[in-house]
Amino acid sequence: MRVLAAASEAFPLVKTGGLADVAGALPAALAAEGIAVTTLLPGYPAVMRAVSGAAEALVLPDRFGPARLLRARAGGLDVLVLDAPRHFDRPGNPYNGPDGEPWEDNGLRFAALGFAAAEAALALGFDALHAHDWQAGLAPAYLRLGAPRRVPSVFTIHNLAFQGQFPPSLLPRLGLPPGAWSLEGLEYFGSVGFLKSGLWYADRITTVSPTYAEEIRTPQGGMGLDGLLRGRAGEVSGILNGLDVAAWDPATDPALAARFSAADRAPRAANRTALQARFGLAEDPAAPLFAFVGRLAWQKGVDLILEALPALLDAGGQLALLGTGEAALEARCRAAAAAHPGRVGAVIGFDEGLARLAYGGADCVLVPSRFEPCGLAQLCALRYGAPPLVARTGGLADTVIDANEMALAAGCATGLQSAPGDAAMLAAAIQRTAALVRDRAAWARIQANALACDVSWRRSAARYAALFREIAAPHG
């Protein structure tokens, strides 16, 4: 079976967040299930360099300007690249210009991606389309509205908070029939809703964890789309994200100061020492060492960590903060490090090698998100033996077993959980964690359980494969 995946980013060709990790890792996992995935990506400069000399696969109709699809093998992926220089040959990250602001024509840029995905699915004989997030949200609409043959589609929500809303003046340029502009279509509170398009027109909807699939059908978690999602509840499923465990392997990772495995954890201590040195922390083997890796954003609960910092310090802990994001939070992280030298360190920026060292050297990784569709930080932490402290929400709740009294007695704890959005509860959980870290025997059991977790794509790939076969069967 052949599936076309449409995404705005995929590791290792282009990455700004977890979407890229999923789009980059899922094809190999699906290959083991007999599903051949080709990934359609926009022709950003970095992607075009990676496919230099690629063969032309399809010339596209001139709806959004001259464009063609190039076929190549790059970064371990079978790819189709949307060669449309007008839309993608520009500096900046995939969504924002050099000034950090979104490109004014993002609506047209990603409409072109959705249109290209539908054209490729139809013209190149794919059995199904897998559209990722709002950037590919128009693809199911183009397939459903006026296509000469039926190609079924799956739309995956990676984060409902990012919805791709654009002014109605965009509508005439999309080339969709007038009936698409309605509540039963693209219209979303007076805007053209790209994410809503995917939710409305796709045959099936998935999101990246079972708990998040439940949360988005509530007024509290649905962000204005809960009614639509409740109406389509029979077509919504939560399939947990995984990790590429070959790429994320502490036994082979060159970013670590010392490689280790579940069978031999002793070398891990060298990573702790290296992590303390990189963040300017005192080389204290007894201090519970906490780390945060990710976007410095309200959603991620970074402000909650800073509010709980006195409790962490009172417990004798150290904190390493790594990430970039909201300017105010970046400033607060720097200020915390300046106020507590040797106890708090902050590196503002994106550094994947340093992130891997944090996972491989910290005692505990903090993931106190206010909401989290799935999260990859806690999966990396489990894989690298840093039992995570997570908020009890979304995929975090699905992937970490809290070290409560019963779980400790049963020997099944893999980390800790705390109530989301509550700094006082996070502070209490941090102190509970510090006490467990100091109980070396108890923490060693939790760490062993974390390292034993199967965080691969194996189970989830089987669920995706079954879903693709199910939707393709009536159209085969």
Automatic annotation (TrEMBL):
Catalytic reactions on record: [(1->4)-alpha-D-glucosyl](n) + ADP-alpha-D-glucose = [(1->4)-alpha-D-glucosyl](n+1) + ADP + H(+)
EC number in record: 2.4.1.21
Domain Glycosyl transferase family positions: 278-433
Signal peptide as annotated in the record: none
Pfam families named in the record: Glyco_transf_5, Glycos_transf_1
Positions annotated to bind ADP-alpha-D-glucose: 15
Pathway(s) it belongs to: Glycan biosynthesis; glycogen biosynthesis
Enzyme class per UniProt: transferase
CDD domains: GT5_Glycogen_synthase_DULL1-like (cd03791)
GO MF entries: alpha-1,4-glucan glucosyltransferase (ADP-glucose donor) activity
Keyword Transferase applies: yes
InterPro entries: Glyco_trans_1, GS/SS, Starch_synth_cat_dom
Domain annotation Starch synthase catalytic: ranges: 2-230
Gene3D superfamilies for the chain: Glycogen Phosphorylase B (3.40.50.2000)
NCBIfam families according to UniProt: glgA, PRK00654.1-2
PANTHER family according to UniProt: ALPHA AMYLASE DOMAIN-CONTAINING PROTEIN, GRANULE-BOUND STARCH SYNTHASE 1, CHLOROPLASTIC/AMYLOPLASTIC
Protein family: Belongs to the glycosyltransferase 1 family. Bacterial/plant glycogen synthase subfamily.
Function: Synthesizes alpha-1,4-glucan chains using ADP-glucose.
Protein name: Glycogen synthase
Protein source organism: Paracraurococcus lichenis
Encoding gene per record: glgA
